[in-house]
Amino acid sequence: MRHIRNLYRYERVLKKYDREEDAEFILKVRREKIGPIIDKLFAMTAKALAEGRVMPKSAFAGAITYMHSLDKVLKTFLDNPYLEPDNGTSERALRPITISRNNWMFLSSEKGGETMGILMTLV
């Protein structure tokens, strides 16, 4: 967890910089500071699996295996200043729709539901 916390500390500082004007600086910090943290996380989890410190059929082992199968994709943000290391921003944007969906479940008619669906696509 310490490594992940450090990764986000760097990212918190980088959010203050303009993605276009300071792209080279952002990429430099990511390559020199964040890249080694990511590499260390991958090495630690691979070692934990190899040494049997994680039960092979556990959910945690499954998560580690899944993470390793997506290593290139998970590291994409290191080479692109516009990307973030997670999808938190997009999930927060969708949250109101998800919460409201339960409120709209009992719209008074099918036509009302269709109208609400159309309105939500415009938002």
Fold blueprint:
Blueprint (H helix, E strand, L loop, with lengths): L1 H13 L8 H28 L8 H11 L1 H4 L13 H16 L6 H13 L1
Can you tag this structure with a few keywords?
mainly alpha; 6 helices; 0% strand
Descriptive account of the structure:
There is one protein chain. Helices cover 69% and strands 0% of the residues. It has helices spanning 2-14, 23-50, 59-69, 71-74, 88-103, 110-122. The protein is flat. It starts with a helix and ends with a helix. The chain contains six helices and no strands. It folds into two domains: 2-86; 90-122, no CATH class. The longest helix has 28 residues, at 23-50. With 123 residues, it is mainly α. α1 (2-14) runs antiparallel to α2 (23-50) and α2 packs across α3 (59-69).
